[in-house]
Amino acid sequence: MSKKTVLFACGTGIATSTVVANAVTEAMKERGITIDSRQCKATEVRSELNGVDLIVSTTQLPSDLSVPSIVTLAFLTGMGKTEALDKIEAELRK
User: What percent of the chain has a predicted confidence (pLDDT) above 90?
Assistant: First the structure.
């Protein structure tokens, strides 16, 4: 599997997206998937899509993006984390 690029978005593009990016990067590594993570503010997503395979966000995104996206708070609350990781893995293996 080639390296995948995941764009992590949150309100500020700093705090929450860093927590999620670190958690997802480590979890995907354990599942045999190497990712290149990038971060941005949710308002910057449209301008950051070039070369991105998946967007993972902790805040709502526009519905008409050309890249698959997963919006989840699982990495902040801990609830549903495994399911969120399964969805991310499934999308990256497509």
Answer: 87
E runs forming strands in the chain: 4-10, 35-41, 54-57, 69-71
Whole-number Å distance between alpha carbons of 9 and 17: 6
The stretches of the chain forming alpha helices (DSSP H) are 15-30, 74-77, 81-92
Rounded CA gap, 14 and 29, in Å?
A: 22
Number of Cβ atoms within 10 Å of the Cβ of 81: 16
Catalytic site residue from 7, 9, 10, 20: 10
Average pLDDT over residues 63-70: 94
Determine whether 10 is an active site residue. Answer: yes
DSSP designation for 9: E
* Single pTM value for the model: 0.93
